[in-house]
Design goal:
Elements: H1 2-15, H2 21-26, H3 32-44, H4 46-69, H5 79-100, H6 110-130, H7 137-145, H8 152-156
Helix pairs in contact: 1-4, 3-4, 4-5
Length: 158
């Protein structure tokens, strides 16, 4: 299952320059079986779920690295932390959505996927492409707090 997820994510990075995002979006339901497995694994919890999530974080670090190399994403001060955050937020949003508004038929997640993606796509794309905060003040304050004062490296991330 991890190999299928890895392949799907890698294809989306590679195809980003050649296939339309909307083309990917329109065929998202082809991953409903994978989504079902992921959700069941997470709901079961325990050591297997922890290991599964850790593998997803490790793989995400590679996808994000590929996106940075391809010029699709900006570099981070801490690629590992960013990959962890992206993975946990995506999984958490999906888990919360399916918990609060479960589909009638858990064996068919296509409708859930369509609804979930329709709800999150616009705000996610806005947040990732246009940003949220209007100034760097909070980031600069935090960097000073953790002992990494803003400088040349921070200016690259503006």
């Amino acid at each position: 299952m991890l190999a299928q997820i890895r392949t799907a994510k890698s294809e989306s990075i590679v195809d980003a320059g050649t296939r339309s995002f909307l083309e990917h979006f329109a065929t998202a339901e082809r991953y409903s079986t994978i989504l079902g497995y992921v959700l069941r694994s997470l709901l079961d919890g325990g050591p297997l779920a922890r290991a599964f999530v850790q593998h997803m974080i490790d793989d995400a670090e590679q996808y994000v690295g590929a996106a940075v190399s391809a010029g699709l994403a900006v570099p981070s001060r801490d690629e590992r932390a960013r990959s962890r955050y992206l993975t946990l937020s995506a999984l958490g949003a999906m888990m919360l959505s399916i918990t609060l508004d479960p589909p009638e038929d858990l064996s068919n997640l296509t409708g859930f996927m369509r609804r979930f993606f329709a709800e999150i796509t616009l705000p996610t794309l806005e947040l990732y492409t246009e940003g949220f905060l209007t100034t760097r003040r909070m980031l600069d304050d935090y960097l000073l707090y953790v002992g990494d004062p803003p400088g040349e490296n921070a200016a690259q991330h503006s």
